[in-house]
Design a protein that fits this description.
single chain, 222 residues, alpha+beta, Nucleoside Triphosphate Pyrophosphohydrolase, 4-stranded antiparallel sheet, 27% strand, globular, guanosine-3',5'-bis(diphosphate) 3'-diphosphatase activity, manganese, NUDIX_hydrolase_dom, metal ion binding
């Protein structure tokens, strides 16, 4: 597994423990609408932190996420070897995650996913191949909720996420953790990981969502 550092130099380098590869995750997967869309050139926005285990659940309606949860998108970006892109957070040592970010008012979730991917990783060479057809939620631990309440100016229980699976069609050199320059960088290092590795190195309160995402997208990851 290749581990890469951002060319952006940050004051506190992060390190992570050796990764182990547990057994595969499996489940059924709903197909994305027939023709996949390819994207090149996009723009704009971001977020989050760690601690206690908090619950996660699924909601049935894409039009109405659970009340009290911030609308958000998650991006599962895979390379030709079916490994998933993950990056280490600058604000939480040894915490790795897939790209994600808030959905702006009246913004289409798929458009938000493409925008967030470019803002956080610099990647525009990707095509959407699948999506989770329902919201996945996680709750913020109390201290994280308080921190984000100050940061965002709104008090959210947690986040309701719409997840998309994207296939990376570019070269690794395209990945730039400075992003597209529109937002402050969030990540220090990046790597291509197995689903099990990502779950292992995610903060506790996101693990259940990551397990569900890996299960739904498993036909594309095996």
């Amino acid at each position: 597994m290749a581990l890469c550092r951002s060319l952006y130099s940050y004051s506190h380098p992060l390190h992570r423990p050796p990764l182990q590869l547990p057994s595969k995750l499996t489940s059924f997967f709903p197909l994305y609408p027939s023709s996949s869309s390819e994207f090149t050139n996009l723009t704009h926005r971001h977020q989050q932190p760690k601690t206690l285990v908090s619950r996660t659940c699924c909601s049935s309606s894409m039009e109405a996420p659970p009340e009290g949860y911030r609308k958000n998108v998650g991006i599962c970006l895979i390379n030709p070897s079916k490994k998933i892109f993950a990056a280490s957070r600058l604000d939480i040592p040894n915490a790795w995650q897939m790209p994600q970010g808030g959905i702006e008012e009246d913004e289409d979730p798929k458009a938000a996913a493409i925008r967030e991917l470019k803002e956080e990783t610099g990647v525009s060479s990707a095509e959407v191949i699948a999506e989770v057809p329902y919201w996945l939620t996680y709750d913020f631990p109390p201290e994280v909720r308080e921190k984000l309440k100050v940061q965002w100016g709104s008090d959210w229980k947690g986040q309701a996420q719409k997840w998309f699976l994207l296939k990376f069609t570019g070269e690794d050199e395209e990945i730039n953790l400075v992003g597209d320059g529109t937002e402050k960088p969030e990540f220090g290092e990046w790597s291509w990981m197995s689903p099990e590795e990502i779950i292992e190195h995610a903060v506790d309160f996101k693990k259940n969502v990551y397990k569900e995402v890996s299960a739904v997208f498993s036909p594309h990851l095996n």
